[in-house]
Amino acid sequence: MNESIINSKERMITDSLYSKILTNINCWTQDSRKIVYDVRSAKNGDVFDGKRIEAIDINTRKVENLYESQDTACCGVATCSPVDGRIVFIHGPENPDDFWNYSFQHRRGVIRYADGRTKTMDACNIVPPLAPGALRGGSHVHVFSGDGQLVSFTYNDHILNVLDERNKDISNLQEHDIDQRNVGVAVPLRAVTVNRLHARHHDGTHFSVLVTQTVNQPKPGSDEISKAYEEGWIGKSGYQKPDGTIQKYALAFLGDVVLNNGQNAAEIFSIDLPDEIADFAVPGDGPLEGTTTRRPFPPKGVVQQRLTRTANRKYPGIQGARHWLRSSPDGSKIAFLMKDDNGIVQLWTISPNGGEPKPWTSGKNNVASAFTWSPDGLSIAYVMDRSLFASSESQTIRLTPKTEDSSAPLPHAVVFSPNGKHIAFMRNICFAKEEYFNQIFVLDV
């Protein structure tokens, strides 16, 4: 891998005794002028205790308070629509108590519109009768599709989690589905209204469904998975199939399989989704809302398929820093992290139509962060060797000088702006009294 170094212009955008947290994708407004983020009190930002969603103009450094939560609720992990002024973010429960506090199963998506209005996206319904289009648990990391129509998220189920807690001693008897992370999609089909038989029920603006299928105990060597997570939309407008047709909406995600030797491994899967919004309300193999013992079923026409098979590699499974699968804008390549035969974590790509993975990098250091594609689809930006890097298929460029571990670029987010002229990332910066807080930087490229 040919590596070169450029003189880059790096700017610290934020500067305060709070940690600023970027989401790993779509943290830029569509005009590439502002960055949206959440604010947390923890020095390294690893505690979800933020109360505000803010935006900062990268040129004037003027900060705008977009949303502030009330009643001791927390909010964070904001992403922007690629086509208009909406943002969507995680919202924890108001007035949390011992029964209903912030957890995987007790969070929701909230959309802020350009005019400042905010509305809850996904309805919650945990007491029968269960409503199609409503969730029975919590959603997380909400991301708009390329056309801004759909929103993907990961999901955990409150109803099944309660059963898990009650039946720990017999959970292996398969008497009910267990709470496993899955991937869902919210579509602007219609608002969903739920019953008021529980104080934590609420309505939603979108019709929400699960689109992945997991099982309690995957059979070794099979394509069954126990967990679906770290999803990403495939292409801004989908991808082209071998027969030349266009799959309009599709997601790639990680699924945990069991290898023949009994070990768990993460593999890459994809889901083809219906082209028409109305089709998301058509049940498939079971009720969209699930039952009191079964998780929600995907809509009719959803196709889940496995793309990677790494069992025979020296280092099986998708490995490395926590990352989300990211597709090139044209949908032809899905990027991910995996070890090479020397045990070094590299960037790889695979077609959404399957085939053999292809190495994108071949360096001597581990790729050490989440990553994003440039808008032209020619390069990927990431952290490696305590620096920011960008790699094309033929060249790797070190964008920032190597720094000390304490202030090196953080692995959470390295995000190209929509116009391709900037990269947003974070560093841990020391303030008075040797206190460190995450701050946002912009690299002009």
Concise synopsis of the structure shown:
The protein contains 1 helix and 31 strands. With 445 residues, the chain is mainly β.
Q: What do you see in this structure?
A:
It is built from one helix and 31 strands. It is mainly beta and 445 residues long. The protein has two domains: 147 residues, TolB, C-terminal domain (Neuraminidase), CATH 2.120.10.30; 238 residues, no CATH class. The chain starts with a strand and ends with a strand.
Question: How are the elements arranged and paired?
Answer:
Elements: E1 2-5, E2 9-12, E3 19-21, E4 34-40, E5 52-57, E6 63-68, E7 75-80, E8 87-91, E9 108-112, E10 118-120, E11 137-144, E12 151-157, H1 158-166, E13 182-187, E14 207-210, E15 228-233, E16 239-240, E17 246-247, E18 250-258, E19 264-272, E20 303-306, E21 326-327, E22 334-339, E23 345-351, E24 354-359, E25 372-373, E26 380-384, E27 387-391, E28 395-398, E29 409-416, E30 422-430, E31 436-444
Parallel strand pairs: 1-28
Antiparallel strand pairs: 2-31, 3-4, 4-5, 5-6, 7-8, 8-9, 9-10, 11-12, 12-13, 13-14, 15-18, 16-17, 18-19, 19-20, 21-22, 22-23, 23-24, 25-26, 26-27, 27-28, 29-30, 30-31
